[in-house]
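Hey all, quick one. A colleague (J.T.) asked me to put the fe (ii) ion job into the tracker so the inputs and the C-alpha cells live in one place instead of scattered across chat threads. No bug as far as I know, just bookkeeping. Sequence used:
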Amino acid sequence: MDTKISEIADGIYRLSTYVPDIAPPAGFTFNQFLVLGDEPLMFHTGLRKMFSSNLDALKRVIPPERLRWIAFGHFEADECGAMNEWLAVAPQATPAHGHTGCMVSLSDFADRAPRQLGDGDVIDIGGKRVRFIDTPHTPHGWDAGVLFEETTGTLMCGDLFTQLGDDHALTGGDVVGPAIAAEDIFKYSSLNPAMGATIRRLSALAPRTLALMHGPSFAGDGASALRALADDYDRRVSEQMRAVLLGEAA
Ligand SMILES: [Fe+2]
Ligand SMILES: [Fe+2]
C-alpha cells in the first residue's frame, strides 16, 4: 500500500491511498488532508489498516508528534478508524467533531476527550482557520459535517462528490458528473428532503478548492459545483418521494 502526498492548496496536503480492488477497473481513493499551521490539523484519520502507510506519508511533511488536531466528517472507519492510533503518536493532539458525533460516538470511542464543535465554530490553528459546518445526514451520518479552511477557501467536503478512479491529485475538470455516476453505483447517500438545501448552503462559502475524500481535489468555482450537486440530489429525492406516493418504491 502506497500513500502519495501532494499540496493541493497553500499549506494543505492530500495524503492519498489508491485501492484498485474497490470498484474495479477504476479503483477508489482514500484521502486525508493535513492542514499546516502553528497547530497542524488532520482531516480524516484513514482506515486502521492504512495507518502505517499514512503515517509514513505524513512524516515526509511533519513529525507526527506536531499534530494538534484530529478532525473528520462523520463516524465511519475510513473517516476516523485510526483516530486512536494517531492520538497515540501525537500526544498533544485533540480529536474535534460536532456535538452530535461527540455525544453519540467519541465520548466512548476516543482515547482522549474531544473538543465539541457547534455549527460555525472555528478552530484557529495559527496561520489557518478551520470552520466546522454541520451537515446532518448529508451525504450520510447523523453526525456529518465538513470543514472550511478560510484563508485558502478550501472546503474539506468528506464524502460529498465521491468518485471512482485515481487520475489526478488536483483537477480543474468536471467533478459533478463523476459524482453523479458514483452515487448511481454506490447509493451511499442518505437521501433526505433537506439534502439539497444543506449542500446549497455550502455554496455560500464560495470555496476555491474542494478537497474530496474519494477523488481528486478540485480547483475552481466550488459554489457552482455545489449548486449542481444539490440540484441532482433534489432530483433524486423528488423521484423517490414521487415513487413512494405512487406506491412504486422498491
Ligand atoms: Fe462515509
Ligand atoms: Fe469516506
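Adding what we noticed when we looked at it: The pocket of fe (ii) ion (ligand 2) is lined by residues 78-79, 159, 213-214 (CB under 6 Å). The chain has a mean pLDDT of 97.
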